[in-house]
Here is the input.
Amino acid sequence: SAALLVDHTGPTITAATLSYPTIVVGANVTNVLTVAATDNAGGSGLPTSGDIGEYWVDGTAAGPASGSRIALATRTANLSVSGLTAGTHTVYVRVKDRLGNWSAVTSVSLSVLATVRASNDTAPQLAIQNNAAGNALTQTITPTFNVFANDTPAGVPGQAVVGTSPTVTRTGNCTLANPNVTGPNPNCATMTVTLNANGTFSYTLTVPSSFTGGVTNTAQNIRASKVGTYTFPYAFSLTGTTSATATVTVRVR
Here is the structure.
């Protein structure tokens, strides 16, 4: 004899995510909505293709404010986001089981920015006095500081630094003067910066292998060579939009 399955309980959505929860107005990206769901124990199960659910953008859990619901053929969908205005939007989604029982509606927020902004930042100061590493001719530091810390937005999926080897400019300090040289002081350390796409960075201070103008290579002078204020520019991109350039300041004392 055949068993009769009676199932009046809809599935449960366990997660709904967007590949880009924050975008910029006019973004030309594929923003993927991914839905995870489970069916009740002993239920009819979840279909894997065909008409498995629907989603809509804005409105309420009862339905869209305008336009129509969009059918889901799989539990992922490419959202059309290019026409969305600046502000916070809501993506609503629900799925059904093989017998057509619907889940409750779940929502996920989508932030649409009018623009992006990189901020001028100051990294935590590095103190090299009485520091064994400060006596080294080459010293590499990886601060916990992230250049995205004060940006709009700050560290969201898809946000990436533009360029990874910025030019570093030094101002002030380094008093190991060479009276025989005009222009940049050859007794002062130089800094190189490696910027990572996620906004973290490291910098290397390199002291001349030998000083000039009668300056000796003592530990004190090596540390004095590094002291100064260093700046480097950066910008970032998000969903096809690039920020204006900002400046990071690193102070070595």
Q: What stands out?
A: Residues 7 and 123 are 60 Å apart (CA to CA). The first helix runs from residue 219 to 226.
